[in-house]
Amino acid sequence: MYPIFLKVKQLEVLIVGGGFVADEKLSFLLKSSPNAKVTMVAPFFREDTLREAKKGNVTIVNDVYRQKYIEGKHIVIATTDKPEINVEVYEHCRERSILVNVADNPPYCDFYMGGIVTKENVKVAISTNGKSPTTAKRLRQFFEEVIPDDINQLVKNLNDYRKTIKGDFEQKVEELNKLTENLVSGHSTNSSDK
Fold it and tell me: What dihedral angle (degrees, nearest 10) is formed by the CA atoms of 101, 106, 107, 108?
């Protein structure tokens, strides 16, 4: 598994389903990427899902899944309670090289939606490679507690400072490494860490 951070506001996302799982996927997506462009298609939606959708750039389509809904999408998440529909969504996506995740069905996933800790500009993603979402959830809760709420101010300050450092890329990295080496107690930076 290779973790990446996607600029979701530049991508088109489709969530197929309108139940509890769809609501959970939408909530985590909007928490991490409030500007995400999302379309949701389902014959019905929970009230909580409709409320959550109003918080973001979410288009609601009251309909059963049809292949036409994946056109122009970059990422599709299938969350229905009908396995045959989820597999159909997966197959349609694979035919078009669209990244797809079938909730709670690892063989039908190109990617997993791991636990994410978000403190403004600081994001920590946690994955168990689909083996234990509960473990990822508990680790997320742990990191939410131990990462200080003011970490974003540190990131902003370091970014401002980085812009003032003279020299080439390596010199800037060395200067920032020296400045931040005490952030992690018990860890010393040496040349093999760079």
Answer: -20
